[in-house]
């Protein structure tokens, strides 16, 4: 059981406000201040500082937050495992970004579910930003995602690599002859929503040629991969997506890869969990089903 002062620290980190943290825990603001002072004395470092009117974590505070979040999530997981021991049932919470969950691992996920008939599965399809927040909160044990992971707070293991390609309907009539990315700017582009790993990867690549998704003449933004594929099948525009997501349509010949001289993008998909969790080996054992 984590010390109550640690709970106070994590609540302050959550809201970056002593008063809101106190309200959340139903204690007084002076009590929160006392708890933080105790931790600063115990660890012999400052945990917060003020920049103008904003409360900020010090570098030491960031390290402590990362470690204590993992400990807090492990505590919740341990409590759940002990409860499972009584009922002889198992609970697994998995997260997948939409490209991964809807296309790349669905058959393996179904096989895992059939392999564990007495297990309760909680499965979440979200974008990269949402997945990482849910890992931090303990809602998700581990996830497979395609987006960038800038924080050092996570255990990361490569799952596989996949190509991102430009896709159109096989009979799409382009406004001009297409050889380079700039030749596509007169086309309507179908993209994922902000927070999506696929969109972040695409924007990062386009920026190297000083291109933004806003430079395309029209945009369709949607948070559903299956809808994007259906829109491509109906010739609503062009899109940049993982090749695995349209493998069936490419084999059938309903969609085609638009070959571009200046677009060659391969990106890693990653297994992600909280760093330094005592359950990392358990998560890796479960994740073997997806390899």
Automatic annotation (TrEMBL):
**Which Gene3D superfamilies does this entry report, sorted A to Z?**
Periplasmic binding protein-like II, Winged helix-like DNA-binding domain superfamily/Winged helix DNA-binding domain
Organism of origin: Anaerococcus lactolyticus S7-1-13
- Residues covered by the HTH lysR-type domain: 1-58
- Record keywords: DNA-binding, Transcription, Transcription regulation
Give the protein name, as stated in the record. LysR family transcriptional regulator
Q: Per the record's keyword annotation, is Mitochondrion included, yes or no?
A: no
Q: Which family does it belong to?
A: Belongs to the LysR transcriptional regulatory family.
Return one GO MF term. transcription cis-regulatory region binding
Give the highest taxon in the source lineage.
Bacteria
InterPro entries found in the cross-reference section: LysR_HTH_N, LysR_subst-bd, WH-like_DNA-bd_sf, WH_DNA-bd_sf
């Amino acid at each position: 059981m984590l010390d109550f002062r640690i709970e106070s620290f994590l609540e302050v980190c959550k809201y970056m406000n002593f008063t809101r943290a106190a309200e959340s825990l139903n204690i007084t603001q002076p009590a929160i201040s006392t708890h933080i002072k105790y931790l600063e004395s115990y660890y012999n470092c400052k945990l917060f500082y003020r920049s103008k009117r904003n409360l900020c974590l010090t570098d030491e505070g960031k390290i402590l937050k990362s470690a204590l979040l993992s400990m807090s999530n492990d505590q919740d997981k341990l409590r759940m495992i002990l409860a499972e021991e009584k009922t002889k049932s198992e609970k697994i919470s998995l997260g997948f970004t939409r490209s991964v969950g809807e296309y790349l691992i669905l058959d393996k996920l179904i096989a895992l579910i059939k392999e564990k008939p007495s297990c309760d599965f909680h499965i979440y399809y979200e974008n990269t930003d949402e997945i990482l927040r849910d890992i931090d909160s303990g809602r998700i044990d581990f996830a497979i995602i395609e987006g960038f992971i800038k924080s050092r707070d996570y255990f990361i293991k490569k799952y596989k690599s996949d190509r991102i390609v430009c896709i159109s309907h096989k009979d799409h009539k382009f406004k001009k002859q297409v050889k380079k990315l700039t030749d596509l700017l007169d086309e309507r582009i179908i993209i994922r929503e902000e927070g999506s790993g696929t969109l972040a990867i695409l924007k990062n690549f386009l920026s190297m040629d000083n291109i933004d998704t806003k430079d395309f003449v029209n945009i369709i933004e949607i948070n559903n991969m299956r809808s994007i594929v259906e829109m491509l099948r109906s010739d609503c525009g062009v899109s940049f997506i993982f090749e695995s997501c349209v493998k069936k349509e490419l084999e059938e010949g309903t969609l085609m890869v638009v070959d571009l001289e200046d677009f060659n993008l391969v990106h890693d998909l990653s297994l992600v969990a909280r760093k330094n969790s005592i359950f990392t080996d358990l998560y890796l054992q479960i994740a073997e089903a997806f390899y």
